[in-house]
Every structure is written in C-alpha cells, then in structure tokens.
Design brief:
The protein is mainly α. The longest helix has 27 residues.
Length: 121
C-alpha cells in the first residue's frame, strides 16, 4: 500500500479541488445543482481516485484508478471551458484553474505511464 499523501500529484489535485470550490462560489445560484456540482464532483473525483488507487495492492489496480482520475481531470477541464463560455467567471480566473488542471493531467499521465511500465506483459 502506498501513502497517497506522499504523492505530489495527490497534493496538486487537492489544491486544484480547493481552487474549484473557491471559484465556483461566485457562479450563479441557479447553477448550484448544475455546473457547480459537476465541476466540484469532477475535482473531488481526481483527488479521491489517486488516494483510492494508491491504497490498492496491485499496480494494475493503481493504474486503473489513475486512469479514472485522468478522465475526471479532462471532464473538469471541459466544464471550465463551458463556465468561461457562459461568462460565469473571468477568463483570468478560469485560466489559472485550467493551468492547474493541465499540470495535474500531465502528472497523472506521467505516473500512469510509470506504473503501467511496471506491469507484466
């Protein structure tokens, strides 16, 4: 079992999640159960799947959870693009969060590649 708190990608994903929660506080109230909930769920999914995958016994399972986290990160990135198109936040604010998403996606991809490389053929 790995300690997820020692993984830099988990820490970055946690910070990203906090950023998403902070940013979505200013979204319209009528989006509370729409885009706000979806974006928050996707962000929490990233950090949660990294943690859950790290607790799994095999690299195969860890890779599967990292893959799910990567999918959630892509989902979040798309939701942020929609929020920008709808004018729910400024471009500068959303760009900061998107940059964090892209960083986390790169880290997840790298870790997934490293873990996958350790799997038997």
């Amino acid at each position: 079992m790995r300690n997820h708190r020692k993984l830099l990608v988990w820490s970055k994903a946690k910070d990203l999640t906090v950023s998403v929660y902070e940013m979505t506080r200013s979204f319209p109230r009528d989006e509370r159960f729409g885009l706000v909930a979806q974006a928050r769920r996707a962000a929490v999914s990233i950090v949660s799947n990294v943690a859950e995958g790290a607790a799994r016994r095999s690299d195969k399972e860890f890779a599967r959870y990292l893959d799910v986290a990567l999918g959630s990160a892509s989902e979040l990135e798309a939701q942020l693009e929609v929020a920008l198109a709808l004018g729910f936040s400024t471009k500068a604010t959303i760009d900061v969060v998107v940059d964090r998403v892209v960083e986390v996606k790169k880290m997840l991809s790298g870790l997934l590649a490293a873990v996958t490389k350790r799997l038997p053929p």
